[in-house]
Amino acid sequence: xxxxxxxxxxxxxxxxxxxxxxxxxxxxxxxxxxxxxxxxxxxxxxxxxxxxxxxxxxxxxxxxxxxxxxxxxxxxxxxxxxxxxxxxxxxxxxxxxxxxxxxxxxxxxxxxxxxxxxxxxxxxxxxxxxxxxxxxxxxxxxxxxxxxxxxxxxxxxxxxxxxxxxxxxxxxxxxxxxxxxxxxxxxxxxxxxxxxxxxxxxxxxxxxxxxxxxxxxxxxxxxxxxxxxxxxxxxxxxxxxxxxxxxxxxxxxxxxxxxxxxxxxxxxxxxxxxxxxxxxxx
Length: 282
Prior knowledge:
CATH class: Alpha Beta
Radius of gyration: 18 Å
Order of helices and strands: EHEHEHEHEHHEHHEEH
Distance between the termini: 10 Å
Number of helices: 9
Strand order of the largest sheet: 3-2-1-8-7-6-5-4
Helix content: 25-40%
CATH superfamily: Divalent-metal-dependent TIM barrel enzymes
Number of domains: 1
Strand content: 5-15%
């Protein structure tokens, strides 16, 4: 398998981490261990012992015993600090395993409940977006200080705003970094060689549709910040993690593919389908 192509653990939905590792070893797959794997005290040991393929940690893995939503822009100091500590802990795990980077989601202006992620996030109180951006920047600076000491890159992933969330919250978007303008604003302030963007193409497709933005122009505006890609597709309305086809819209940027690490983030696919997804990216 190409050293820069990984399969997200969500592709094996319902499988335990032990089963995922076994499948990966039998089929020479590189794995991104991501959100969705329930808490188990043995998870990190199983991750550390996985040696037969390349690996990455993403966002909420390993899930903590007491669940919470990572929010690096939270005005709740306890949530912000827990989020920072989770990211720094994963940078340390990444350093221990000689991994190049760790990536986490961009922040929110509200604090969603764990069971609302991927669905409708209702907010009914006033918030100051500029204040949450400042909190986000403060969190990033703290994390990147540790990233530089550890020699591991830290990337943020663009958020997704669906039409359902946008319309039913009075055409307001409480999620940070859904657009190229806001992503570029963050990168203009955080000038750090270890800081990068993990571009989720499915998130960008939905957000661009919701906010009436030109999808290809959005990519071009952030090209110089991209270090890694999450690949999946959808209908432009919801982030459904559908399979890639030969008509996958992001293939028009294939001239840049050799510069990035790639993660196939398609849900519930078998080994034959995984091979087909890899072939499309190659």
